Amino acid sequence: MPLPLIIAGTPLDATVSGLLDGPVEILPWSALMKPIASQVAGLYTYGHPVVDAELLNRLPSLKVVSNY
Prior knowledge:
The protein is an alpha/beta fold. The protein has 2 helices and 4 strands; from the N terminus they run βαββαβ. The radius of gyration is 11 Å and the shape is globular. The relative contact order is 0.25.
């Protein structure tokens, strides 16, 4: 079974990276413009990118948005 895909601003803090490494696959923000975006289950943001309807429409499989 493939790991859930998470888009996150990188590089991640070592603590966050340690928690996420293994349970999920981290993709860079540039993945939003690629076909794989339709499979993304999570979005991890530091609050700088705007998470609006346009962004959410690109992520039909999205289940969680985390604002650190």
